[in-house]
Design a protein that fits this description.
203 residues, alpha/beta, Rossmann fold, Helicase, Ruva Protein, domain 3, 3-stranded parallel sheet, two-stranded antiparallel ribbon, 7 strands, elongated
């Protein structure tokens, strides 16, 4: 499996490659992905299709149609290779937060699976059991150095975590853990309990 990030993608040539007559000649991201995978039938993740730059959107959507259409992708032409390449065995998986920026023609060639956002209970469970221990370990602390009061987790989740995923919550937890680490290395103590009374000091 290989990932192609579409966030900020500004040219269809990044996907299709540059011709050998160009000074910037190189294969496109699709052929590079196949080269990294070293197989002809990988899973290629087209990540965040909705985040391409507006000026290049039409051209990039045109390349996507060719990639995703079973009637066309057996003869995909990369400008660097300048020869049809068979992508019919590739399994394309795409992600997007918002489908409004993806052309109708591309959407017609995709099987849409809507993933609902996490509930607050799910976010709390992920944060307590996975995110928090990970950051504690990353900054070199032990579980004895920092504890977060159980009653505080709902407040860390909202109103600070309105996104569908847990990115905001991750940033909040990372900030709390790093501030505790700073207090420890500056000699202000070795054990800290974060609760409703002192949480503002750490956010």
């Amino acid at each position: 499996m290989v990932r192609i990030p579409f966030g900020g993608l500004s040219s269809a040539l990044d996907l299709r490659g540059q011709a050998k007559t160009s000074t910037e000649a190189e294969p496109g991201m699709i052929i590079k992905a196949l080269r990294r995978a070293q197989v002809k039938n990988p899973v290629i993740l087209l990540d965040e299709l909705d985040r391409v730059t507006p000026e290049a959107r039409a051209a990039i959507m045109g390349v996507l149609i060719e990639l995703l259409d079973p009637g066309q992708n057996s003869n995909f032409t990369d400008y660097f290779i300048d020869y049809p390449f068979d992508l019919s065995q590739v399994l394309f998986v795409a992600t997007a937060n918002n489908t409004n920026n993806i052309s109708t023609a591309v959407m017609d060639r995709l099987e849409v699976i809507n993933m609902p956002s996490y509930t607050d209970e799910e976010k709390i469970a992920i944060a307590k059991n996975y995110v928090f221990p990970r950051y504690v370990k990353e900054v070199g602390l032990s579980p004895e150095n920092i504890k977060i009061d159980d009653n505080l987790w709902p407040k860390l989740t909202r109103p600070l975590g309105f996104d569908a995923g847990i990115r905001s919550l991750e940033r909040t937890i990372e900030g709390v853990v790093r501030k505790v680490a700073l207090k420890i290395v500056s000699g202000q103590g070795t054990t800290f309990v974060i609760n409703e009374a002192n949480v503002k000091e750490y956010l």
